[in-house]
Amino acid sequence: MISQQLLVKQKEKVIRVKLKLFWLYVAFSLLFSANDVFAQRKKADFFLKPQTGIWFGPVTPVFSTADDVDTALWGGGFVRFNVLSLPLKIGFDSSYEHFKSEGVKELTVIPVYGNVLWRLPFDMPLAFQLKAGAGSAKVTIEPDNASQWDPLGMLGFELSFPAGKWINIGLRIDYLFIYEGYIKGASKNGHIINTGLTLYLNIGI
User: Fold this and answer.
1) Which residues pair with 92 in a beta bridge?
2) pLDDT digits (tens, 9 = 90+) for 31-81
3) CA distances from 45 to 13, 117, 162, 179 (A)
């Protein structure tokens, strides 16, 4: 019993160290990149360009989901299109997220969803974006090998800035709600928070 508790504490310590190293890397990346960004004014509104990109960072189960599985490091990709010249974008996102636990249970989630992004009206190189969307998530539970597609809703926030003509760098925080209340006998829904460093590629410049 004591050895098991020591293993749990050691694993929690490793996870905390990984998260600290990740956010330290993010902080230094933003610090060095920001020097070039704020040294010049924008020559183009990069938000008004179609974009594709990837992100990587901690995926954290919260609320009741945190009782079953642990935080992990994963990522995903996205593509976005403009709505005329409005401060809106239509986006499509997906990611791969695999969670382990202290026991034998493992959870894999593959969310696929669309969203609408709205840029807050601040006149500065930084772009602050709110987003909301819906779609579906493929949920697989091991070792039961049970797999199904569940309805999904999401809310999120992004901060990004240009790091050249073709590239933007940013941070994202997304809350994913996986609805399983329609399943007979189900007592829990899924709750995940994705945070990560994001790399955007501006298209059509």
Assistant:
1) 79, 114
2) 555 444 444 434 456 777 899 999 999 999 999 999 989 999 999 999 999
3) 43, 16, 9, 37
Yes or no: say if 140 and 147 are a contact pair by the CB < 8 Å rule.
Answer: yes
Rg of the chain's alpha carbons, rounded to an integer? Answer: 19
Give, as one character, the DSSP assignment of residue 89.
Answer: E
Q: How many CB atoms lie within 10 A of CB 113?
A: 20
Q: How confident is the model at residue 20 (pLDDT cuts 50, 70, 90)?
A: low
Structure tokens at 193: 């928070």
Q: Which fold has domain 2-202?
A: Porin (2.40.160)
SS3 state at 10: helix
Residues facing residue 109 across a β-bridge: 97, 139
Residue 120: partners with Cβ closer than 8 Å, 6 or more residues away = 128, 129, 130
CA distance 57 to 26: 10
Q: Which helix (H) or strand (E) holds 96?
A: strand 88-100
Nearest to 95 by CA among 117, 74, 73: 74
Q: Which of 29, 27, 97 is nearest to 58 (CA)?
A: 97
| Residue ranges of domains in the chain | 2-202
